[in-house]
Amino acid sequence: MPLESRRYPSLVMGVVTSSNITLVSEVSGILGLGFSRHSEISARAASATPFFSTLAQQGILDYPIFGLSLKRNATRTFTLGAIDVSVVQNVSQVVWNEVVSFSPIGTQTNISGYFYWVIRMSSFAVNGTQYTPQPTYPGPNGNSSIALLDVGTTGLYGPYQDVSS
Fold first, then answer.
1. Which range (37-41, 81-85, 92-96, 143-147) has the least confidence?
2. 3-state secondary structure of 72
3. Does the pTM of the predicted model rise above 0.70?
4. Which of 14, 80, 89, 102 makes the best surface tag, with the fewest CB within 10 Å?
5. Considering only CA atoms, which of 46, 52, 3 is closest in space to residue 151?
């Protein structure tokens, strides 16, 4: 059954009535791919789950993954539930990274959950030059560096000591 014809009582959408960015067409907008713990909609609407989480929990996706290909001045793609073979030519080159979980803010509990799309980062490259970041985040196996992945921002951010080097 097509997605459009199903009913999703726990799927809540927010309507944008004003914005500090210009949406270029009637189909432009914002689609939250974050986790419930960081969702403004989940905080305001009881039992609401973000769009991607709802699709994954209800088994609508072949795999609980999504992919974005954002290229300057080129075709861009967004794929739900699969790997876009027009973007990824060799699937064996795909690297899976575990998402880092966080304890709830302001608590000392051992219970953790996902808050942001964050992965551990052992190195990064700028213009072909490889760098090893200075570990700043405490983890179960000592300190490590982490990278927050967010396509909803206009810049790339990182720990001061790494960015400045």
1. 37-41
2. coil
3. no
4. 89
5. 52
Q: For residue 55, what is the DSSP state?
A: H
Between residues 98 and 72, which one has the greater pLDDT? 98
CA distance linking residue 37 with residue 54, whole number of Å: 14
Between CA 84 and CA 70 the distance in angstroms is 13
Alpha-carbon radius of gyration of the chain:
18
Close Cβ partners of 50 (under 8 Å, ≥ 6 residues apart): 32, 33, 34, 35, 36, 39, 41, 42
What's the whole-number average pLDDT of the chain? 75
What does the alpha-carbon distance between residue 57 and residue 156 come to, in Å, rounded to a whole number? 30
Contacts of 41 (CB under 8 A, 6+ apart): 12, 13, 14, 32, 48, 50
Residue 157 has pLDDT above 60, yes or no: yes
CA distances from 149 to 99, 152, 157 (A): 10, 9, 10
Amino acid in position 41: I
Task: HSE, CB side, 13 Å, CA atoms: give it for residue 156.
Answer: 6
